[in-house]
Design brief:
Largest interface: A-B, 73 and 73 residues
Oligomer: homodimer
Helix content of chain A: 25-40%
Largest sheet of chain A: 4 strands, mixed
């Protein structure tokens, strides 16, 4: 055989989802990684070269064979998470939305302009999400440019692929005076500087760091700012993130101010592109979804958060049929969990609740929305493959030229709830992992071919 | 001070819920336990005797002060869990109900008549649920009497308070020939023997073991058996467990066979008592709930399982207002998680989804059921206080004569997702624990005053 120059070769069983609704088991394969941190090749046991590659590498120190009970999963892509809301995670979910925003969330995000606080908090969120298998995260930072740059630097340093946005919010009618951009010009200038600075950070680390244009949502921005951000997106070709039709209130606001839907407003300002990630979308109409499909934008489905703030379930299966891609987001701290596993589970659960309905006083036939259910395969696809496509990047699959972003799940560690029995098929194992894994089961994590989890429990105290 | 003869004195901060919807913080208290394993006294820092008790015990080896970041919670009561379905936990949730029952569940439960399999499986479920804080569990065993007795023995030996039932299912029209009681007389005889045998087991351990009369559900039993089990319940005064109006199918079945609702049928046979635990109840009508309230029966609310099999959300807040108590159940393996923490979270989540509705195509005002939401306080009440009341026992509160069943939650362990900050109030801490604790956080567990968690991760391999 010819010289391959692999930098790592792993042998074991992996799961991934190349197709919506289907899971592929890569049983006892060899996964070869190259110097760029990409998958160079996947050899199946029946492949002619399998034996040669195995013999060539199995005695080298770049070779690793998974132990019984260990499995590989692609790293997860969290398409929606608010880094400065970290310290509120798990609290204040019982208060009304206005209280949540004005008394809990805005003051907290404001505090993250203090560098010491920001450094500690951002290290914790990056460390914790890595410990839950999130290899790529699309972060809302705060309104503060310097603080959000710190977030991008911390992602770069800790090995997570961070797509970060300085949050733009300059509409004095919707944003508190202590927490907003001074005016449209200042907001746009800051965004431009932020893009340039994050690009430089990205060049400094193998997994990259990406700037994201981030209008908080339509209500928080003036017209001039929405228009200017659309122009910046066209100029730089970078991703955009915002919220879309998250709640009855947000959906109604766009009509009141513009006489159009939230989606139509974003599109009018050039903010729906094939690199746009729009969070929630529970209140999108079918015609809004058709617009998203036409533009190639991706919805960040956040099922846990939506139970508290979404006023409905995002109908992920119907939207995929319309051509609208969706990935998954934790939406910390509107969602109480930093784990995409929890959101994979919840995505399945809420799809069943949408299908069957919730109010048993209605007749069964009028209670829910038939054919809404998804299963663990769709949910894994959203957490991996769809997240990569949303960002226009080769992420989420064990295939050549895809980044080698991978989780090693060990089902036999202490604190494991995953119990595998002799009758379990590989598909059963995947189901048990997706429904029952906790962070103790994640014993190694690779981003762009590099191992990035170190120390017990991945926790810095 | 007089001699107290305490067997343990703990100092620290605890949370509990004496009242539906309210949480009480017992800050820096002394919890004194007596030789019966009951709470003998709770001393608050402002109590006159606090200093005396502290001085008397703090140098003894029965004293333990919680470290910073550690908190006490009452042990949880799981009101509904199927022990022989353990090995299916986390799988087959995407198959239709008929397939789930006939191809996955009944054959699996049948296998648990083999003592070796049963011993291994039952040790795992008891060990794992203890590791998640379940100090009392109301178990469906299998149809096999000997196997279910083994379950009761294992609970007794491992220190969990097990309320176990040999499952009765003798209706040939609904039960497969390989897995049912031979006839009504055999089912009733087996139940009587089972009750006597479990009572003997209960006398052998401090926490007790309780027999539970367990008709699987109305469809699985003949009339003679339902009537006979009602008579046994009256004769022995023991608890009853069954399923009630779990799904559209089950609710409809009762009308077809009896021309009455599922609740009315159970009542007709004497199976709704103040010691009855009826699982699910998603399809109960208001008049059925009124009947439950009158009888003093308790609903085991299983929010995770119901998403898959319930065809609706059990309206826990409306039912409490009607006087119907509800506790929580994991319903393994209809529910994929062995943890009541997961079900506490899901109880909150589904209450919000019931309130707001799921199908955004309906106008907001017609989408959900107003005033359905509960919060973390209601959910904790269900997992503790209500579970104890369901069984007519003093469980779930840190109060004199209540069993000292307690969880020690350490927020600072490796793998912890609980991050406490200086601004967090005790109520915030409780919210973070309930939404974010995982089994690594549970570092000690007491049942009836005895510590019962040993070894790393509480796992036997």
């Amino acid at each position: 055989m010819t010289e391959k120059n692999y930098t790592a070769v792993l042998r074991g069983t992996a799961f991934h989802t190349p197709v919506w609704g289907e899971a592929e088991v890569l049983e006892d394969c060899l996964f070869a990684v190259d110097a760029k941190g990409e998958v160079a090749a996947v050899y199946h046991p029946h492949d002619a070269e399998y034996g040669d590659v195995l013999r060539r590498y199995e005695k080298t120190d770049i070779y690793r064979a998974l132990a019984p009970g260990q499995y590989l999963l692609p790293g997860f892509v969290d398409l929606h998470i608010h880094a400065p809301q970290w310290t509120n995670m798990g609290k204040a979910l019982h208060v009304p939305l206005a209280t949540w925003l004005q008394e809990y969330t805005f003051p907290l995000e404001r505090k993250l302009a203090e560098a010491t606080t920001a450094r500690e908090v951002y290290r914790e969120i990056v460390t914790t999400t890595l410990a839950h298998g999130t290899t790529t995260a699309v972060y809302f930072g705060s309104q503060d440019t310097a603080g959000t740059l710190l977030l991008a630097e911390i992602c770069a340093a800790l090995g997570q692929r961070g797509a970060c946005g300085k949050v733009v919010m300059d509409n004095p009618e919707e944003c508190p005076p202590y927490y907003r951009d001074a005016d449209s010009a200042a907001a746009l200038r800051a965004t431009r500087e932020f893009i340039e600075a994050v690009r430089a950070i990205g060049n400094s680390c193998p997994q990259g760091a990406w700037p994201v244009i981030t209008p908080r949502f339509v209500p928080s921005c003036t017209d001039a700012t929405l228009a200017g951000l659309g122009e910046l997106a066209a100029e730089y070709g970078v991703p955009i993130q915002t919220h879309i039709a998250e709640s009855d209130w947000e959906a109604g606001y766009a009509y009141e101010r513009f006489g159009k839907s939230d989606a139509e407003v974003l599109d009018m300002f050039g903010l729906l592109t094939k690199k746009s990630v729009v969070a929630h979308g529970t209140q999108l109409r079918d015609e809004d979804a058709a617009l998203l499909a036409e533009r190639g934008s991706t919805v960040a489905h956040c099922p846990l958060s939506n139970a508290f703030f979404g006023n409905g379930v995002y109908p992920v299966r119907r939207r995929f049929a319309q051509g609208v891609r969706a990935g998954l987001g934790t939406d910390v701290s509107g969602g109480y969990s930093p784990s995409l596993y929890d959101n994979i589970r919840q995505a399945v659960v809420v799809s069943r609740m949408l299908e069957d309905g919730v109010d048993a006083r209605r007749p069964a036939a009028e209670r829910g929305v038939p054919e809404s259910r998804i299963d663990y395969r769709h949910a894994l696809y959203m957490a991996t493959t769809a997240g990569g496509e949303a960002l226009g990047s080769k992420l989420g699959l064990f295939r050549p030229v895809y980044a080698f972003d991978a989780q090693l799940i060990d089902t036999r560690v202490p604190h494991s709830d995953i119990h595998i029995y002799s009758g379990d098929t590989p598909e059963d194992v995947l189901q048990k992992i997706l429904f029952l894994a906790n962070r103790a089961n994640l014993t190694a994590l690779w981003v762009q071919g590099r191992e990035v989890l170190h120390g017990t429990g991945g926790r810095h105290e």
